[in-house]
Amino acid sequence: MRSFNSNIKFMKKISLWLIAFNLLIAGSASAADNKITSWKIDNSKSKIEFATQQNSTPVTGSFTKFSGTINFNKANLKDSNVKIIVDLNSFNASLPDAVEVLKEKGWFDVKQFPNAEFRSQKFTQISENKFRAEGFLKLKGTELPTTLDFSFDQYSATQAIAKGEAKINRLNFGVGKKDENNIKDIVVIKFTIIANN
Q: How far is 74 from 84, CA to CA, in rounded Å?
């Protein structure tokens, strides 16, 4: 009888060790799943573009030079963060004559404010593959709350392809004046960011 009770106690100890081991493994896997990934932007394939209207004519353009830090994990949005810096001197537009004009003091004023910056530490998941970044855009010395909505064309352990957009009112940043050159106030910023781990 004593031997039988000893065996039961031994089996209970083994069961407790197995439970503890499984919990340890599960905890390690969860920590790995929530680890924040530092993504490196592939500038040769990524792009930041904008669109507005002058009279009824679409005006589009892009910025060819930008950099930043992207620390992001879809499974751990609360610890994710991003900071993107755009070189405004790299600006080009569908209307060639507009390029130099928009670099002037009344518009981007690139001599005094050569960069624009977006940063965010607040991400929410809107739907299965749609996310929102609530942050701040700093442009021409003015920093204002700005929201980006984006989704992923690809999201793997080694590469992420994110596409999204934001709408801003250029007047809020002191970029041009109301109805100047008949250019609309609202500007849509679109981006495709390809980043590797």
A: 18
